[in-house]
Design brief:
Elements: E1 21-27, E2 36-42, H1 53-64, E3 70-73, E4 80-81, E5 86-87, E6 89-91, E7 100-106, E8 109-123, E9 129-132, E10 152-153, E11 167-181, E12 187-200, E13 202-203
Parallel strand pairs: 4-13
Antiparallel strand pairs: 1-2, 3-6, 5-10, 7-8, 8-9, 8-11, 11-12
């Protein structure tokens, strides 16, 4: 039964979700073929295949609502210059970077999945690709014009010739998901990707004498 009955429902027959799930069966065997329904508690319904924990893990990931990176820099309204190192970093949150943990129970099998971003691949729009293993380092004025120690890029051409006068930047996060069946035993891992995009304008500093 979806959703399952509340814990105090008579349908559980004194049992709980640890014993399995509540199933409802309807047969056309009443007077004149009228439907007759009955309920029972079991690990799996008669004739049903065992639940695949990997499928339950995928359901857990769907509940997490994982998203692309929350780009903090570069900013669409930012001012960036040719030849000056650009620092890239993202905000860390449960749905945009992790860690994110969710459990799902299906037919008596409970799976807990934990998701976290392991890398972010930046496509800078000028043909360059930058792979960053972490969220990046937040820039402060004290760093001056030095390059980011963890995640950065330097443009060598302005974005004037680009569509809309800006480079189209895409940040693709790779999420690593580890899952395990409650009680130990079966476990696994898989990956998913999520992408965010931003437009970045790159200008040129003119020296007037």
């Amino acid at each position: 039964m979806e959703p399952p009955p509340p814990p105090d429902s008579m349908f559980w027959e004194g049992k709980s979700s640890k014993d399995g799930a509540v199933y409802q069966r309807t047969c056309q065997n009443g007077p004149d073929g009228a439907p007759i329904s009955d309920t029972f508690v079991a690990d799996t319904p008669p004739g049903a295949a065992p639940v695949d924990p990997a499928v339950v893990a995928a359901q857990a990931v769907a509940k997490m609502k994982l998203a692309g990176p929350a780009i903090a820099s570069p900013r669409a309204a930012g001012s960036y210059i040719v030849g000056v190192p650009m620092w890239m970093w993202v905000h860390k949150g449960p749905t945009t970077y992790g860690p994110n943990s969710t459990s799902v129970t299906a037919r008596g099998v409970t799976v807990t999945a934990i998701a976290e971003v392991t890398k972010i691949v930046w496509r800078m729009g000028d043909g360059a690709t930058v792979t960053c293993k972490g969220p990046g380092t937040t820039y402060t004025a004290a760093y001056g014009k030095q390059e980011s120690p963890t995640c950065g890029h330097t443009y060598h051409r302005t974005s004037a010739a680009q569509n809309g006068g800006k480079y189209a930047v895409a940040a693709t996060a790779t999420w690593s998901i580890n899952w395990q069946v409650e009680g130990g035993g079966t476990n696994g891992r898989f990956t998913e990707t999520r992408q965010s995009q931003i437009q970045v304008g790159i200008g040129e500093l003119q020296v007037v004498r």
